[in-house]
UniProtKB/TrEMBL annotation:
Organism placement in taxonomy: Bacteria, Pseudomonadati, Acidobacteriota, Terriglobia, Terriglobales
Enzyme Commission number: 2.7.1.148
Family: Belongs to the GHMP kinase family. IspE subfamily.
A Pfam family it matches: GHMP_kinases_N
Active site (UniProt): K10, D142
GO biological process, one term: terpenoid biosynthetic process
UniProt key word Protein transport: no
Matches recorded under InterPro entries: GHMP_kinase_C_dom (IPR013750), GHMP_kinase_C_sf (IPR036554), GHMP_kinase_N_dom (IPR006204), IspE (IPR004424), Ribosomal_Su5_D2-typ_SF (IPR020568), Ribsml_uS5_D2-typ_fold_subgr (IPR014721)
Record domain GHMP kinase C-terminal: where: 273-340
Compositionally biased intervals (Basic and acidic residues): 193-202
The name this protein goes by in its record: 4-diphosphocytidyl-2-C-methyl-D-erythritol kinase
Enzyme superclass (EC): transferase
Region Disordered, annotated ranges: 193-221
Kinase in keyword set: yes
C-alpha cells in the first residue's frame, strides 16, 4: 500500500523584507499560517541496489524530474538515511502553481514524510528533526515551515522557523487570479526601489556597498518593526497561550485596521499593529488587478461582512481574506465571482490539526 500525504498550503500573514544579502537572498521576517487546502502526494518506496526516482503528476506544468521539490526531498532524505531505494512519487495538484501559497515547498515536505513512512516499513529508522529541517532549508526558503505547521515565525531568509501560539481557525478566501508572479523577479523589483546602500556588504553584482541610507525606513528597520508587532501581539493576555479569536466581535466598519478596536484577540491585535506584506509595494503597481482583488476581499457594503484582514500572500499572485463567519467568506467569494475571479474557500489550519490530518 503506498502512502498518501496531504500537502497543505500557507499564506503569509505579514512579511517584512530586509536588505539583499551577499548570498543573493534577502533577510525577511514573516508570519506563515498553514491552510487546510492541499495537494495530495503519494509515495511508494522499497530499498534497492541503486536509487531510482520516478515522479508523475496530473498537472502538466509540474516538473517531473530533479527540478521538482518533491524529487529533491526524496534524494536528500535517501542520502541522509544512507539508503538506496526505488521511489515512485505522484502529485495530485489542487493548489495553484506560482501562487504564493508555498505549494511546491509543501510537496517537498509531504514527499519526505511519505518516504520516511515507506522506509520504516522496511525497518529503516526515521531522520532526526534537526536533520529534516536542514534538508528542508536546502530545498527552499519556504520549505521548513511545513515541518512545523500552524502559525510559524520565519526569519533569516524565511528558512529559520519557530512555532508560534496558534490562532483558532478562521475562514479564509483565497483569490486565484490567472497571473503567475515570479518570486526572484519580485525580490529584484523590491531591490530596484531601494538605494544600493540598503544592501548588505557584497550584495549586488559589481557594486560597492556604501553606507546605509540615512533617511527613510530602511529594510532592516522593517524587519524589526514586524518582529515588534508580533511580540506585542503575543504579549496580550491569553488564557492558555493559545490564540483564540474570541466571541462577540465589535461592530465593524469597512476600514480594516480600525475595525476591531477593543476586541481582545491576538489575531486582531496583530492586524491592528499594522502587519503588512512588503511585496504589495512592488507587486500591486505592476499588477494593479491584484490590488483591486485585495479591495474586493477587504470591504463589503455590509460592515459585518468585511474581512478581518486581507493581503497578498508571499510574492503572489494569491490574495487572501480572513473572515469571522462562513457567510462573510461566502459573500466575498460571490463578490469575486461577479468580476470573474476564481477563488477557493478554506480555513486556517492550527498545528495540532495540521499533523493530525496529514495522513490520508
Ligand atoms: C516569497 C516567499 C515568502 O514566503 O514565498 P512565495 O511567494 O514564493 O510563496 C518565500 O520567501 C519564497 O521562498 P521559496 O519559494 O522557497 O524561495 P527559494 O527557492 O528559497 O528562492 C527562490 C529565489 O527567490 C529569491 N529569494 C528567496 C527567499 C529570500 N529570503 N530571498 C530571496 O531573495 C532568490 O532570488 C532565490 O533564488
Ligand atoms: N512540486 C512542485 N509543484 C509545483 N511546482 C513545482 C514543484 N517543484 C518545482 N516546481 C517549480 O516551482 C515553481 C513555483 O512553485 P510553487 O510552489 O507553485 O510557487 P509558490 O512558491 O509561489 O507557491 C513552479 O513554476 C514550478 O516550475
Amino acid at each position: 500500500m503506498p502512502t498518501t500525504v496531504r500537502s497543505f498550503s500557507k499564506i503569509n500573514l505579514g512579511l517584512a523584507l530586509g536588505p539583499a544579502r551577499a548570498d543573493g537572498f534577502h533577510g525577511l521576517t514573516t508570519l506563515y499560517q498553514t491552510l487546510e487546502t492541499h495537494d495530495l502526494v503519494t509515495v511508494e518506496a522499497r530499498p534497492a541496489a541503486a536509487t531510482r526516482i520516478t515522479l508523475t503528476s496530473d498537472d502538466r506544468r509540474v516538473p517531473t524530474d530533479a527540478r521538482n521539490t518533491a524529487w529533491k526531498a526524496a534524494e536528500l532524505t535517501l542520502s541522509a538515511s544512507g539508503v538506496a531505494a526505488d521511489v515512485a512519487i505522484h502529485i495530485e495538484k489542487r493548489l495553484p502553481i506560482q501562487g504564493g501559497m508555498g505549494a511546491g515547498s509543501a510537496n517537498a515536505v509531504a514527499a519526505a514524510v511519505g518516504l520516511e513512512i515507506e522506509l520504516q516499513k522496511h525497518g529503516i529508522s526515521p531522520l532526526s528533526g534537526p536533520k529534516r529541517l536542514e534538508i528542508a532549508a536546502r530545498i527552499g526558503s519556504d520549505v521548513p515551515l511545513f515541518l512545523i505547521g500552524g502559525a510559524v515565525l520565519g526569519v533569516g531568509r524565511g528558512e529559520e522557523v519557530y512555532p508560534m501560539p496558534d490562532f483558532a481557525p478562521v475562514h479564509c478566501v483565497v483569490a486565484l487570479p490567472e497571473i503567475g508572479v515570479s518570486t526572484p523577479q519580485a525580490f529584484r523589483d523590491w531591490d530596484a526601489l531601494r538605494p544600493a546602500g540598503d544592501r548588505e556588504p557584497g550584495a549586488g553584482k559589481g557594486e560597492t556597498a556604501s553606507a546605509p541610507a540615512l533617511t527613510g525606513d530602511s529594510p532592516s528597520d522593517r524587519l524589526e518593526e514586524l518582529s515588534r508587532s508580533l511580540a506585542a501581539a503575543l504579549c496580550e493576555p491569553h488564557s492558555s497561550g493559545v490564540f483564540t479569536l474570541g466571541g462577540g466581535l465589535a461592530v465593524k466598519s469597512g476600514s480594516l485596521a480600525n475595525s476591531f478596536a477593543g476586541v481582545n484577540s491576538p489575531l486582531l491585535a496583530l492586524v491592528r499593529t499594522g502587519i503588512e506584506n512588503d511585496f504589495e509595494e512592488v507587486v500591486f503597481p505592476k499588477y494593479p488587478f491584484l490590488g483591486e482583488i485585495k479591495r474586493i476581499l477587504a470591504a463589503s457594503d455590509f460592515p459585518e461582512q468585511a474581512a478581518l484582514y486581507a493581503s497578498l500572500s508571499g510574492s503572489g499572485s494569491a490574495v487572501f481574506g480572513l473572515y469571522e463567519t462562513a457567510s462573510a467568506a461566502e459573500a466575498a467569494m460571490a463578490r469575486l465571482e461577479e468580476r470573474g475571479i476564481r477563488s477557493l474557500l478554506t480555513n486556517t489550519l492550527p498545528r495540532e490539526s495540521y499533523w493530525r490530518s496529514m495522513m490520508v
